[in-house]
Amino acid sequence: MTPEDIEHLAATLKARSGLILGSDKTYLIESRLSPVARREGFANVSALLSALRTKRDEKLMASVTDAMTTNETFFFRDKAPFDQFKSDILPALAKARLSGDLKVWCAACSTGQEPYSLAMLMDEAKPQFPRINLDILATDISDRCLEKAQAGLYTQFEVQRGLPITMMVKHFEKVDEMWRISPKLRSSIRFKKLNLLEDLRSVGRQDVIYCRNVLIYFDIETKKRVLEQMATLLADDGCLFLGAAETVLGITDAFKPMPGMRGLYIKNAASAQTGARRTA
Amino acid sequence: MKTCLVVDDSRVIRKVARRILENLQFEVAEANDGAEALKSCKEKMPAAILLDWNMPVMDGITFLRALRKEDGGKAPIVVFCTTENDLAHITEALTEGASEYIMKPFDGEILEAKFSEVGLL
Q: For domain B3-117, which CATH number applies: 3.30.360.10, 3.40.50.2300, 3.90.440.10, 3.30.160.270?
């Protein structure tokens, strides 16, 4: 790999997905792109990278971006963001709205475990909130991830990561050596391809946004831009979940942390008040 | 320190499970089959039991039914750990009082997550 190849790859990734390739990522590039090089018929990763630089092959660039982004996820990941949703946020929003749709957006849903975890939680909470319908929008930049998410088909390893066995029995069926989530839950989620670098207005109004472990890959300007767009989409009494290692502090004052709830953010009073006056 | 009884006819599996459980601060006892496990429980009820299904002499589900009839036999938290991975087996295990179910192959991460799920950690 030449420094020029790596530089070009870094620029392509940043432009297409916001992903910042840190220094000394030769190992990461090698391990993520080897399968792509093999699949696309290149002798090695270096050959793939130089082809990427000399030819403008849209399909190849998409595969490379896809492979370089991290899609690590599992059911009920970190637990707290789901416990908090069930014990605090859902009851509070249900009380405020009385009936109708509660809109939840999983902004980087990867292979679907996060939105499906929410759908399973809602299925459990439904008797308590019979007049509330959870409208889940799940978006991701990767076609491959969305395809898997939509199919709702998981390996034995994946269904054992974070998913209590009683929920697996209730919502999954065995298909050969894989496990498929029920059609009911699959149809309760709208999956859509979306790049967070784009204009996000098409997403529409949301009550709760899950954007976990995505912003860590962006530079500070991109983080700020994404967060501020999310603030304009979020209802004034809505909330935002970030990953455990992420924060808004030092990036934007559109949000502030919710005291005592790690990873949970609400709109800052100043912007929330403006919104309240506007809707009043 | 909580105790966990590992019931499996494979010495290798018992060894792997022991290493994971000791790292999670469990005191580990071992049994080669259901009958041995029952004998061990009569002497001392463990807090948790990691239980294989298919074993010689007495299989896991027969052991679980017998255990629940013992004095204090309702107390241990039972987690199946078996290659049986169809819904019929899983449902039967839950009906007989197992709390969680691990489908082999498993690793430390899965075992830790399942034990945490049932409040053992």
A: 3.40.50.2300
